[in-house]
Amino acid sequence: MATQGSAATVAVDADALARRFQAGDGTALGPLHEAAEPILRAAVGRLVRQGLPAALQPADLHQESWLLLAELARRWQPRPGIPFLAYLGRVFPWALARYLRAQAPARRSRAHAEYSWPHDRLLMALERTTDPEAADWDAALYCAALLAQVEPRARAAVWLHVVECRPFAEVARALGVPRATAFDLYRRGLADLRRAA
Fold first, then answer.
1. CA 34 to CA 59: how far, in whole Å?
2. How many other C-beta atoms are found inside a 10 Å radius of the C-beta of residue 32?
3. 0.90 exceeded by the pTM?
4. What own/partner pairs with CB < 8 Å and gap ≥ 24 does 77-86 have?
5. Count of alpha carbons within 13 Å of 67, Cβ hemisphere only?
């Protein structure tokens, strides 16, 4: 029982730390990282065991985990029954895998180009391309591409449960299937998403 109580305390503390960080308190990131360390370490460990591109070391992923934690803490929208650590456990592995894919040699060579433009023209081009919502747009496109690879009913089950935070009873009603079938569709959708990622 003491373990469950301490786990609940850590979850409440993590929620408070994430809210402080969202409010602009940068000192909350260190303790938040400490509270989330088991989740972060497990996700990094899985990717390291699968193998990293030659240019990356495990320390690079640990360092990136700080940046991803900060980004995800800013995006977190507190909802009843979904503590920050549960949210992080779902989205951090995806964010870390996306970072790893972006570091793949083939992708990096496509993403970088050399321009021999005059300085003024280059600055004007950079000003036109900087958009604060570009990262969200990129993430939305990536998620849409992943979801497009999932069978429609399974995709709907994942969307209703993960994005709209509906319990499986409501997912089942929305899809017109029994609760067990809704859960099976959800699990199938997650499996398809993991394979696609």
1. 16
2. 25
3. no
4. 78/15, 78/18, 78/19, 79/165, 81/165, 82/165, 83/11, 83/12, 83/14, 83/15, 84/11, 84/14, 84/15, 84/17, 84/18, 85/10, 85/11, 85/14, 85/35, 85/36, 85/39, 86/11
5. 8
pLDDT tens string, the chain, 197 residues long: the values are 444 445 555 556 899 999 999 999 999 999 999 999 999 999 999 988 888 877 788 888 889 999 999 999 998 888 888 899 999 998 999 888 888 887 776 554 444 455 566 666 666 666 665 555 555 655 666 677 777 888 889 888 888 888 778 888 888 998 899 988 998 998 998 888 888 76
- Residues comprising the chain, all counted: 197
CB count in 10 Å sphere of residue 122: 12
User: Any residues with CB less than 8 A from the CB of 69 and at least 6 apart, and which?
Assistant: 29, 32, 33, 36, 40, 88, 92
